[in-house]
Amino acid sequence: MSSLVDYLDKGASLGRDAPCLVEGAQTVSYGEVQDLSWSVAGALSAAGVRPGDKVGILSANNARAFACVFGIARLGAVWCPINPRNETAENRALLELFDCDCLLYHSAYEAMVREIPLRVAVCLDRDDEFVDWLSQRDPVEPSDPPEDLAMLVGTGGTTGLPKGVMLTARNLETMTALTLMGYPFAGRPAYLALAPLTHAAGVLCFPVLALGGRIVVMPKPDLGAFLELIERERITHTFLPPTLIYMLLGHARVHETDFSSLQCFWYGAAPMSVARLAEALVVIGPVMAQLFGQSEAPMMVSMLPPAEHFDSSGNVATRRLASAGRPSPLVQVAIMDADGHVLGTGERGEIVVRGSLVMAGYYKDPEATAQASRFGWHHTGDVGYLDDEGYLFIVDRLKDMIITGGFNVYSAEVEQALMQHPAVRDCAVIGLPDEKWGERVEAVVELKPGVETSVPELIGFVKERIGSVKAPKAIAIWTELPRSRVGKVLKTEVRTSLLGG
User: Fold this and answer.
1) Domain 329-397: which CATH class?
2) Any idea where the domains of the chain sit in the sequence?
3) What CA–CA distance (Å, rounded) separates 395 from 391?
4) Which of 50, 147, 179, 487 has its CA 20 to 30 A from that of 248?
5) From the first residue on, what is the mean pLDDT of each consecutive set of 10 residues in the chain (501 residues)?
C-alpha cells in the first residue's frame, strides 16, 4: 500500500455498498467514504494544499473526521492527528513544528482553534459550512506523498518539547501485514473504536479496512455502551488500554454480556496486571491479544496472540502473561548495552529494534534521529530481556517516562509545571505501579523556606497548566530532597522511599 487511501480503496473493491463507518444510527458505506475522500482532496487543493503539505485533524472520535484522513491521503498530503486532550499551547507547538497551517476540527474545540494561527481552518460538524467548503474544490489526480511520508505523530520529550515522528506508508504497510498475519481474522471484521483514533485505535483501522470490515466509532468512552455495541454489532475486534479493561471487568453488565463474536481483544499502551489479565481471559474469554510498540515503531514490535496466553495443555500460561510476547516476524529485536553490544538470552539492557516498521526519523530533528538510531538500531528507551523461548519482557524504562492509563507523561514536563508555583523550591516526579492506571504520577516537593501551601493547591495548580492526565495523583511534601554531591535529585532514593523500601 503506497498511501493510506489504498486501504479504503481495497475495502471498497470488495463492495462499495458494504458498511464502512458506523456512528450511532448512521452508517456510511465504502462508496460514500470514497466519494467524500475525493471531495475533501479537491477542497484541500482549492485551499492551496499540495502533495506533501501537512493537514491536521483535531477531533474526538468522529466518523466524518476519520473519513477525512482518506481525503488528505488522496491528495498526497500528510495526516497529522492532533490530540484533543492536549492543552492549547502544546497543540500550537505541535502544529508549528509540523509546518501545519491547515486544520480540520470539531466545533467542541473551537476555543482552542481560535488561539492557534492557521491559514485554513474548517469545522467538520457544522454541516452548512462543511458542505460549502467541499463545493469549492479543484479536480485532483490521486498522488502519493513525497518521500512516502503518510503521518506525522506528535510525541513529547523529556525536556517537554514536542517531537514529530515521521511514519511512512511502508511503516504502516508493515504494521498492517503483521497485524493480519499475527492475529485471528475470519470473515469481514467488525472493529469497535472506543479508544482515541488519534492513537493506537486509529492505525488498527487500516487492517480492518483492507478486509472490507466495518468500524464502529464511539464518540465518548462509555463502557456500558461499549458492552452493548459488542453484542448488537457482533464486534470481532477491539482495543483498549489496560486501565479501561480494569474498569470493564468491574462493570455491572460485564458478566451478562455475550462476547461470543469476539475474535481478538487487543490490549497495550501500558503495563497490564497479570492477575487482571488472567481474570479477563475468564470473564471476556480466550480472545485477549497483547501488542507492544511505540509511535516510532507502531504497534507490532512484539505480539502475544490469543492462543499464546495458554500453554500446550490449554492452561493459562501465567509467566508468559507478564511478557510483551514474541518479536514480530518482520521485526528484529535485540537487547543492547550502552556501548552498542548485543546481549545474550536473559541479560537485561535496552530494547532495540530494526526493520521496515521503524519510523523514517523525527521531523526536522536530525540530532534526535541520530541519537535514537545509533549503532544501526532504533532505541526504544525501554529496558528488558529475551527469555530462552524468545519472549520479550519489559522491566523498566531508561527515560523518566510514565505510562498512565495508556498516555505518556514526561516527568520533566510535570516538574516544570510544579516549579512554576511560588512556594516550590525543588521537586521530583516519578511513576509508581498502579493496579488501575498501570502507573500513577506521584511527586515529592521541597518548599521554599518559610512558605506554606497544601497538596490540593499544588495538584490543582498543575492541572490548570498541563491537564488532569499529567497532574500527580499524590504529592508528598518533604523538608529536603535527596541529592547527589553535584546537587542532582536522586530519583532512585525518592522511588524507594515512596514504595516503602
Assistant:
1) mainly beta
2) 5-309, 329-397, 401-498
3) 13
4) 179
5) 93 98 97 97 96 95 96 96 86 92 95 93 95 92 79 68 91 97 97 91 96 96 95 97 83 95 90 80 97 94 97 92 94 96 94 97 96 96 92 75 78 80 87 88 90 94 90 93 65 86 62
